[in-house]
């Protein structure tokens, strides 16, 4: 089985909800529909590991400090992105992330 499909199945099994996508595209190769998960928690495999595919997990948060702490509680950290219309929020999060590069309102 394709590794990305394994992550999608893992997310479902652990209680995350597929809000969009989640299936293999019917063509040659390993193509997956862009997939959006909701009801994701920090302990789920899809939240802890880098999937390297068109899969995104939505996690709820109470405040920016929680976001920074959760983002820094990972083995990874090459690149981070911050999206907000509030310039002060972008600055605070970008400054707090322990990553190699930070993009603001952009990704690559």
Describe this structure in words.
The protein folds into two domains: 1-59, no CATH class; 61-108. The model has no long low-confidence stretch (mean pLDDT 93). Helix 3 runs parallel beside helix 4. The chain has helices spanning 3-13, 45-48, 64-72, 87-96; strands at 17-20, 35-38, 55-57, 79-82, 101-104. The strands form two sheets. A three-stranded mixed β-sheet has the order 1-2-3, covered by helices on one side. Strands 4-5 form a two-stranded parallel ribbon. It is an alpha/beta fold. The radius of gyration is 15 Å and the shape is globular.
Helix content: 25-40%
Distance between the termini: 30 Å
Radius of gyration: 15 Å
| Strand order, sheet with most strands | 1-2-3
What is the percentage of strand-forming residues?
15-25%
Based on secondary structure, the structural category is: alpha/beta
Low-confidence stretches: none
Characterize the overall form. globular
Task: Give a count of the beta strands, DSSP E runs of length 2 or more.
Answer: 5
Number of helices: 4
Q: Averaging pLDDT over every residue, what do you get?
A: 93
What's the number of structural domains? Answer: 2
Blueprint (SSEs and pairs):
Layout: H1 3-13, E1 17-20, E2 35-38, H2 45-48, E3 55-57, H3 64-72, E4 79-82, H4 87-96, E5 101-104
Parallel strand pairs: 2-3, 4-5
Antiparallel strand pairs: 1-2
């Amino acid at each position: 089985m394709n590794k990305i499909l394994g992550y999608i199945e893992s997310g479902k099994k652990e209680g995350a909800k597929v809000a969009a996508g989640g299936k293999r595209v019917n063509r040659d190769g390993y193509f997956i529909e862009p997939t959006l998960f909701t009801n994701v928690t920090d302990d789920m495999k899809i939240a802890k590991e880098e999937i390297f595919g068109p899969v995104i997990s939505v996690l709820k948060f109470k405040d920016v400090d929680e976001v920074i702490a959760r983002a820094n509680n990972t083995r990874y950290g090459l690149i981070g992105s911050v999206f907000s219309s509030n310039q002060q929020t972008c600055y605070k999060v970008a400054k707090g992330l322990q990553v190699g590069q930070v993009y603001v309102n952009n990704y690559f």
